[in-house]
Amino acid sequence: MKYLLITLIFLSGFIYSQDDKFNKAMSRYVVLIDSMGSYTFDKRVEIKNAVDRIAGSEKERWLAQYYGALFNIVCGFTDTTREKTDAFLDIADEYLKNAENLKSQESEIVTLQAYSALARMVVNPFSRWQAYGTLFNKKVEEALELNPKNPRALALKGVSLYNMPEPMGGSKAKGLVIIQEAYDNFLVEKPESDLHPNWGISMLNQYLKFLNENKEEK
Amino acid sequence: MRTILFFVVLAIFCFPAFSQTKISGTIKTQAGEPLPGANIFIKDSYDGISSDAEGNFSFLTEEEGDAVLVASFVGFKSKETAVSLTGAPVVVDIILESEAKEIRGVVVSAGSFEASDAKKGVVLRPIDIITTAGANGDLYGALNTLPGTQQVGEQEGLFVRGGSSAETKTFIDDLLVQNPYFSSVPDIPSRGRFTPLLFKGTIFSTGGYSAQYGQALSSALILRSQDLSPDTRSAISLLAVGVGGAHTHRWENSSIVAAADYTNLAPYFAAVPQRTEWDKAPEQGSGQLVYRNKVSKSGMFKAYSTFSTSDLALFFPDLNNLGNKLRFALKNQNLFFSTGYSDIFFDDLTFSAGYSYSNNNDDILYEGNELNRDDNLHQVKVTMQKGITSNMFLTFGGEYHFLKFDNSLSTLRREFEENYAAAFVETDLFFTNDLAARIGLRFDNSNIIGKQAWSPRVALAYRLAEDNSINFAYGEFYQTPEVNFLNFTTDLNFENATHYILNYQYLTNRYTFRIEGYYKDYSSLVKQQNNFLTYNNEGSGYAKGIEVFWRDRATFTDTDYWISYSYLDTKREYRNYPTLATPTFAAEHTLSIVMKYFIRSITTSFGFTYSYATGRPYYNPNNPVFHGDRTKPFQNLSFNASYLTTIFDKFTIVFFSITNIPGYENVYGYRYSNDGTVSQEVLPPSLRTAFIGLFISID
Q1: In this prediction, does ipTM exceed 0.90?
Q2: Is residue A161 part of a domain?
């Protein structure tokens, strides 16, 4: 009996819980998302590679697939040569397909689908607006239907509205209203766990000063 | 004691999980360049690392036993290597292949230009074709900005490397299209029947093409139709000259597109004065139905049908009787239907089969004479592709055409049928990653002339470095004489051309440079004898030239431009030529510059196309030298603009284009009266052509 107890204590220490392993590994990178902009492109790819390794062996966890997609989208978006943007996004879309199969009707996954479409559109807005601009709008609305307070979906919507040329229906004023809404929601957001999506406030950094100006005017 | 023993056993039992294996090595491209930032890891584990700036990697893993080491890098094919993890260091050197090179290292490319949405590093994309200024959305107009083509303003079609437009054939999903252009009247070119948007890929080969394609002496335009439509949507187009509408419906595994359009040039001709005297401005209507069904993971069924009808009439001045006018009226009806199925069996046997039917009817009324031309074509083609070894694959198949012509002039009638059959076999060989060959043989049999022909074709590609290659092609090409001659005699042989092509190409996603030289030997061309209605195959000729193409998408932001230059030296003695002479459709030097510029802030794309060609020969009965005269050089500067916007929240494109902005007075040739005393310039129907349209997409 004494030996059995000791054995159990030993084993509980050595048998490393797979959940803990995943949480610990992934959280190292999740905290980096909002500062990805401060790294070089090569460093971003290195971080993405590490996330790819985790996501590749955690095919049954939607959050693993979710972050696999997100880091690839970030790399695709920030590939200024645009040469590999589509290749990164092909990988991201593959992850998103897996994630959707694991968890349907998830506002966060739909938000990334929108983000991916936006990244593709930016490669060549003229030839791609019709396909990917339309898809982006559709997915953002879908994400907000599933969760009207999703600050990431709001941020993408606001920022794209702000930057879209006026002939295409863009508007700086309308964009700022939604950016404000996104900002307010970021501040009160309470993620389910440390690993649930909680990134994105950095998307608003360059617009915050306009928000303040707006307030001063009022 | 027993207690101690227990802990020792337990320790042995638990601790082996912590023995570590060191894995290290280098990762490089096929060209031997190190790949920094590649992801190297043990499959299904977290263990791995990114390669450093020199392509080196080194990491520790706690995994044990047999494992798979994966190396991946965006834009390259992932590579898996089996490794045994025992604690002893493992050293692995990895070479990754670029995804852009579809099969092995090098792609045979002598003579061809490829446009595709899917492949990387292609020369033109479908969107590039639509936005080329001066082309007005016409596929053939855009291809006329590529090297090897001629600026022939009085006639539609692609005149490639000294060849007439009848020597270029269009293939849709490998099936020959009998009437790719709308029917036209003399001196006024018509457009292609098919919109570039129907196709996901375009290969424009200016010579040396594969044994899979026959009945073309000079050039093959190979079009691949779109697969499933991406989503359900409707579109409306409002043009200054007509209206159009399309609806696309997408289900899980199938899609249908139904489209119709109507154009009438009468209001435009009323507003913009024309040189041509129209009795009835061209009026045209057409309908299309496209069905796609993905029947299994690899099986795709496609059906496409289009029907169009057009009506026009105009006057020509009668040079033999000044002051008199000759009336020419044309009514056309055209039906094209094609269906195809493609699938993959036994892992690596690619199978495709297609059937098409087309009917074209031209009803011409010329000075009281009624001329009717009716042709029907039934066609089947089967193509299979099979990997033989990892370095070789085989393509083989056959096709059969049943053609029926029915021509009548007033009470005279000529009817005939042709049964044409062909078989082909071709092998793609990869000797090394840098050396590839395509060797093919084609057999043609034409019943109407009772002749057979064997056409060997060879293409070689040698890669000098990552993006540089040298290509060579040789081939024999046969074509059945045109219907005009078969009307008089069927005692003829195939016309023949032999191609030799050598090129150097530098191709990346940002730049394309290509220089290509060729020699083409024509023999067995149909030649008219002194007696007006007898023909034989004693005609011959040659064409040789050098072409340069440069495209740059990177140097200037949001700007894309390409420059094509062609030098052509060609002469032939054929048809009614009394001697060896340069044909009327051949200019010695041709230059095209195409530029596109997108201004994001106003969501507008601007395009310019400038073309220049030296004078072409024309027939002057007063000059003892046949084709001894040259027209003045041809010049054109076209502009287009596309403004993307939204109207009532619907995605909209406002499109405007104008040709010949500077108003160059181009002359395409001259017509003479029978006695040679009266001549008249052949001119474009108007100095400039403008076009404005609105395309609205409804989700």
Answers
A1: no
A2: yes
